[in-house]
Amino acid sequence: MKLLVTGGAGFIGSNFIQYMLREHNDVDIINIDRLTYAGNLENLSTVEKNDRYRLIKTDINDRVALEPIFSEGIDIVVNFAAESHVDRSILDPDVFVRSNILGTQTILELAKKYNVQKFVQVSTDEVYGTLGESGLFVEDSPLAPNSPYSASKAGADLLVRAYHETFGMPINITRCSNNYGPFQFPEKLIPLMIQNALQDKNLPVYGDGLNIRDWLYVEDHCSAIDLVIRQGRNGDIYNIGGNNERTNIQVVRTILQELNKPETLIEFVQDRLGHDRRYAIDASKIRKELGWNPKYDYESGIRETIRWYLNNREWMKRVHSGAYQQYYSKNYAGA
Ligand code: NAD
């Protein structure tokens, strides 16, 4: 099976590529990544010499560069490539529209032209907007995105859906809750807090810290996408989540406890604009229909994750200093 993975140098994409090459001998992967600030090839150093893996540095909007890749024959597209940070989308929405919506449409068009067997769009629970104190997002909950990030992801989902309805393209859309685990860019809650705590810096927590997210260990997200690729019913959407609702302040306190740091490091800061209060996923469809079962419970997953960042401080330092961005020119010279 020849997989075209976009955005594979990012947090989830790099975990996914490692997972697929480890779990399956019949999978070849081409990774298309523009290597934005969030793309880190160090995340893929364990697979870069694997014969079944190839990196092509390009933008998913670059149809001319992508055409020869599609014409080689691609079985499945898994589209992770996106601008993914809500705070950045508030400061500069343009690039979110370009990468997340227009980029998705560009590769949809190529997938249609070259008759790929399936297009899997990796989406997010944030497209559903926010919940009150009770209730869960189900696959047919209305789309009500509140940030430019989630609006751009919802726009992409609708295009994917339209290519299925109009052109009969075989597709699936997955909508997962917040991921945590190794290789996450330290602008996101968990690695940011770990990094600051290790340096005895303040831990900035938005508003009252009571916003709720539903956390899933990244490898469990990867195993769910793997199932959807192989068994997902054509045209269907699958919610993915682990029933691990935690307030942001709970997450931060766990990190401080694990690192033996005082709670006085917590600093409540002005809330994010349009900050969604609560996300919670009903993942019973993928559990029942595809037999998906997450392996990690939150308490052990979060501890394992904290240990990973502790054991990989050099990785963190290179991300922080910007040195990770030289990896491509050093290791892919002449590529
Ligand atoms: P990330 O920001 O860590 O990685 C994104 C990757 O996409 C980077 O390698 C970047 O270089 C690449 N990229 C960005 N724009 C590109 C473009 N125009 N062309 C080619 N490559 C481009 O993101 P992530 O956290 O790994 O998320 C991956 C996907 O999963 C995203 O689509 C996101 O919406 C979705 N998602 C993320 C979460 C989460 O908790 N992180 C949860 C659910 C869904």
Automatic annotation (TrEMBL):
Its cofactor is NAD(+). GO terms for molecular function: dTDP-glucose 4,6-dehydratase activity. Keywords: Lyase, NAD. GO terms for biological process: nucleotide-sugar metabolic process. CDD domains: dTDP_GD_SDR_e. Its EC number is 4.2.1.46. The keyword Methyltransferase does not apply. It catalyses: dTDP-alpha-D-glucose = dTDP-4-dehydro-6-deoxy-alpha-D-glucose + H2O. SUPFAM superfamilies: NAD(P)-binding Rossmann-fold domains. It comes from the Bacteria. InterPro entries: dTDP_Gluc_deHydtase, NAD(P)-bd_dom, NAD(P)-bd_dom_sf. Residues 4-305 form the NAD(P)-binding domain. Belongs to the NAD(P)-dependent epimerase/dehydratase family. dTDP-glucose dehydratase subfamily. This is dTDP-glucose 4,6-dehydratase. It comes from Cohnella lupini. The lineage of its organism: Bacteria, Bacillati, Bacillota, Bacilli, Bacillales.
